[in-house]
Amino acid sequence: MSNPTDLVSWSLQMIKMTSNSPRLKLHDLPRNLHYVTISYIETAGSTTTRQKALKEQYFFSCNCPHCIKAQFDDIQESAILEGYICKDNACNGFLLRDSDNKGFICQQCGLFRDKEEIKNIASEVKVVSEKASLTLSAGHKTEASALYKMVEKLQVKLYHQFSINLMRTWENLLKVFMELEDWKQALTYCKLTIPTYQSKLLSLS
Predict the structure, then answer these.
(1) pTM, whole model, 2 decimals?
(2) pLDDT score at 154
(3) Using CA atoms, how far apart are residues 198 and 191, in angstroms rounded to an integer?
(4) Where does the pLDDT of residue 53 fall: very low under 50, low under 70, confident under 90, or very high at 90 and above?
(5) CA distance 148 to 132
(6) How far, CA to CA in Å, does 11 sit from each of 25, 38, 40, 120, 184?
(7) How large is the angle between the packed helices 164-179 and 65-82, nearest 10 degrees?
(8) Which of 105, 118, 175, 204 has the lowest tally of Cβ within 10 angstroms?
(9) 35, 42, 50, 43: which is closest to 5 by C-alpha?
(10) Closest by CA position to 11, among listed 175, 22, 29
(11) pLDDT at 62
(12) How crowded is residue 85: how many other Cβ atoms within 10 Å of its Cβ?
């Protein structure tokens, strides 16, 4: 986010003015020192926030290597948290839509996953999730836990282990098992949610 500014001329003038000083000699400066640079904006924000500020305040988009890499990292994080997983169980890659919009391509192994396959599983997840929620609201906790486990089984086929959707199901199961006072099962699902929170906190640090 840094670019040369008018400070260059000012800085060189200051150097010349002080070149006779015993503390600073012009020839003491590195020969490859050509520019003084500053940041246009606060650099601690996310890539999206920084790009938005640059566009609004300075009317340009930054394409420096840092921004390009950060944009890819943002896409990857979003795909892992909200997108789909590779259908190869041995692969831990994330999926992005293919150019023909017929499915998704794993960004790690290149394997194609059909859009209709994902759509069918997602539809089944929605139906069972709604039934589980209604069952829990009716006070049938044991039956609800069985339904949420069905949701979990389906979601594991779709989502990454750090998926927000999968984590919500684990949180529902945690809540149900705590109400059932099944502490062993509750602890199991509590442990499953921790890595997702950890990965998000580490990305913000």
Answers:
(1) 0.62
(2) 96
(3) 11
(4) confident
(5) 6
(6) 14, 13, 18, 64, 67
(7) 40
(8) 204
(9) 35
(10) 29
(11) 82
(12) 26
Cα–Cα distance list, 14 to 10, 23, 48 (Å)? 6, 13, 37
Q: Is the pLDDT of residue 75 over 60?
A: yes
pLDDT, one tens digit per residue, over 132-158 is 999 999 999 999 999 999 999 999 999
φ, ψ at 116 (rounded to 5°): -65, -35
Beta strands in the chain, from DSSP E residues, in sequence order: 2-4, 37-39, 95-97, 103-106, 112-114
Handedness of CA 70, 74, 80, 83 (dihedral sign): negative
Torsion angle, alpha carbons of 50, 55, 59, 64, to 10: 50
Residue 35 — pLDDT band, cuts 50, 70, 90? low
- Asked if 188 and 171 touch (Cβ cutoff 8 Å), the reply is no
